[in-house]
Amino acid sequence: MNPQSSQFVLKLDPTLTTALNSTVFGNGNSDINISPSAFLVDICGNMYISGWGANILQGVPLGGMPVTPVTAFQATAPNGFDFYLLVIERDFAGLLYGSYIGGSAAQEHVDGGTSRFDKNGVIYQSVCGGCGGNSDFPTSPGAWSSLNLSSNCNNLVFKFDFELIPNAEFTADDNIGCAPFIVTFDNFSTQSDAYLWDFGNGDTSTVIFEPTITYDTPGTYNVFLYVTDSICLLTDTAQLTIIVTDSLELYVTPDQELCQPIPVTLTAFTNGSGTSFVWSTNINFSDTLNSPLSDSSLTITPSGITTYYVQASNPACSLIDSVFVDFIGSSLVLTGNDSLCLGEQTVITASSSNPLVTFTYVWSPSSIINGSTTSSSVTIQPPSTQYLYVTASSNTGCIINDSIQIFVGDIPSVLVHASASEYNVAEGSVVTLFGEPAGYTYAWLPNGGLTSPNSQQTEALVDQTTLYTFIVTDGICTKTDTVLVKAFSFICGEPFLYIPNAFSPNGDMDNDVLYVRGALIKDMTFRVYDRWGELVFESIDRLSGWDGTFRGKPSNPDTYDYYLKVTCIDDVETIIKGNVTLLR
Predict the structure, then answer these.
(1) Hey, what's the torsion of the CAs at 447, 449, 455, 459, to 10 degrees?
(2) Is 1 part of any domain?
(3) Gap between the Cα atoms of 390 and 248, Å rounded
(4) Does residue 55 belong to any structural domain of this protein?
(5) What is the pLDDT, as a whole number, of residue 57?
(6) Are residues 25 and 133 in the same domain?
(7) Residue 415 φ then ψ, to 5°
(8) CB neighbours (10 Å) of residue 385?
């Protein structure tokens, strides 16, 4: 511990006449390093020393003192005006612990402060700290105050456990339970010490630091943990009691089927393994239906379909089960298509949702039933919207009356008709789709390219041959019809564009006007020139043609040139030039 140092420890015999052991400690300098504050010999014979440096007896900042690098709280002096803690092994065999403790700014010291050492290796030190109004001394979480509220030094108290004396301490995640009961033990002892577990069931362990043990047999088990340190072989002991009870059994009254609300008694059976019972209407047990809790039975009059939950417990464990209380009426289920068109038939079936309940049936009115009125299924053909009734008698003696409303719609099929403004169109054309009759709800399918797919009439962009389905419904009955619109490919030119090579504007109503022919024209410019190149006619509307006049006078019979610029419905542009003969 650094020869030539100026602090020393001496061990004398009981008569104080003979020196048995001694050592010096410090940083190897002949100057004093610390002002000692406290000294103690623990129950194992180890020597504890605390002191502070560089304030009164010495002027050189504290440093170079022997430390234990791995376990030291502060292996280097924060600023040289700090406390120093030292533990020398019994019989002076070596250094057990060495560390600094202090702040990086303040100059900790003792002005008559109090120091106490516990023989189990714990120091309690009262010092002057935070000098200069600093708050830099290390504090632990939850300290009474981590701040110096004074403008200069303030009283500072710290407790330091060197953990050199063995300490046996452990807990269990639970100490009472039903067999088989699994317990995990949490060990708070120092792992560097030797330890021995005695689990109270004949099993022991020195290997697992925090074991998990299964207790299969009911009983009371005293668990011991023995911790022995490696220096002076002192042993500390901790004890905990584990209580294991018999496993809890639980079964309850079978589910109940009632004809009407009557008092019923529900019972939880545990074969004597349960001591407390809580009945509730919900799995969270937010309401308690029974009193006292030692009574395993509950007598109650259910007002509706209810599940009753019971939690049976003993001091160690608990189990939950339930009883479902149903009424026979809820077990009867009527199924089938309840919406149809006038003249159609439908099958209505009665069945039990509870496999333990069976019924016999009587259906009415018989006027709408085709066939038997006493089977579980009937075929009906009602003339209008009305109810179908059934009386069901259960095998438990209950009589249930139920009904189902059958909705009947009336859309005469002969009135449902779909049509189109055109049936053969070029690809990309727009046609109008018409549906009949009026006054209903509609849908057109497929609805892609339709402007109003849910209207009686809609515009349709036809890109390909399409079969359109017209759907008519009154909310109950649904009828359909179809219309086929064929689409063909075309060229923006002949033969889909046509200009006659002659016309005769003689008033006989036959070929009197020269028109540009072509239903697929989107935009056009049509010009006619005489043989001298003079423009005699121009039009941008295919419905506006040349009547053979120029400036209000009939033109002479002759051959005329024309120029046609056309944009078709597919946005393809074409220019056509040619001549036409005017005849009189």
Answers:
(1) -150
(2) no
(3) 48
(4) yes
(5) 67
(6) yes
(7) -90, -15
(8) 14
For 117, 269, 515, the CA distances from 43, given in Å and listed in that order, are: 11, 59, 128
Measure CA 327 to chain center: 37
- Looking at the fold, whether 108 and 180 belong to one and the same domain comes out as no
d(CA 433, CA 455): 10
SS in 3 state form for 188-220?
CCCCCCEEEEECCCCCEECCCCCCEEEECCCEE
Residue of higher predicted confidence among 445 and 192: 445
pLDDT at res. 257:
82
Considering the domain boundaries, does residue 258 fall inside one? yes
Q: Domain with 192 in it: what CATH number?
A: 2.60.40.10
Same domain assignment for residues 126 and 52: yes
Domain co-membership, 394 together with 477: no
Pairwise pLDDT comparison (549 vs 43), residue with the higher score: 549
Does 495 map to a domain? Answer: no
Residue where one domain finishes, among candidates 161, 179, 194: 161
Report the percentage of the chain scoring pLDDT > 90: 69
Residues 6+ apart with CB under 8 A from 124: 114, 115, 116, 117, 118, 157, 159
Reported as type and span, the H/E element at residue 328 is helix 328-331
Q: Is 229 exposed, middle or buried (0-12, 13-18, 19+ CB in 10 A)?
A: buried
Task: Label each residue of 70-90 as H, E or C.
Answer: CCCCCCCCCCCCCEEEEEECH
Distance CA 434, CA 379 (A): 37
Q: Work out the percent of the chain whose per-residue pLDDT is above 70.
A: 99
Of 248, 238, 245, nearest in space to 176 by CA: 245
- Domain tally, the chain: 6
DSSP per residue, 376-403: SEEEE--SSSEEEEEEEEETTS-EEEEE
Q: 18 and 108 share a domain?
A: yes
Give the distance, in angstroms, between the CA of residue 132 and the centroid of all CA atoms in the same chain: 55
Q: Whole-number mean pLDDT of the chain?
A: 91
Mean pLDDT of 534-549: 95
Q: What local confidence, expressed as pLDDT, does residue 56 receive?
A: 67
Domain's final residue, options 274, 293, 328 = 328
Has residue 154 got a pLDDT over 80? Answer: yes
- Residue 371 maps to which CATH number? 2.60.40
Three-state secondary structure along 496-547? CCECCCEECCCCCCCCCCECCECCCEEEEEEEEECCCCCEEEEECCCCCCEC
Pairing of strands 47-52, 417-420: unpaired
Domain containing residue 453: 413-488
- Report which of 267, 275, 224, 268 is spatially closest to residue 246, judged by C-alpha positions: 275
How many CB atoms neighbour CB 490 within 10 A?
21
Give 295's pLDDT tier (boundaries 50, 70, 90): very high
Q: How many residues does the chain have?
A: 584
Using one digit for the tens of pLDDT, what is the confidence trace for 461-510?
998 999 999 999 999 999 999 999 999 877 787 777 899 999 999 989 89
Q: Are 430 and 420 in contact (CB under 8 A)?
A: no
How distant is the alpha carbon of residue 98 from its chain centre?
A: 53
Do 446 and 545 share a domain, yes or no? no
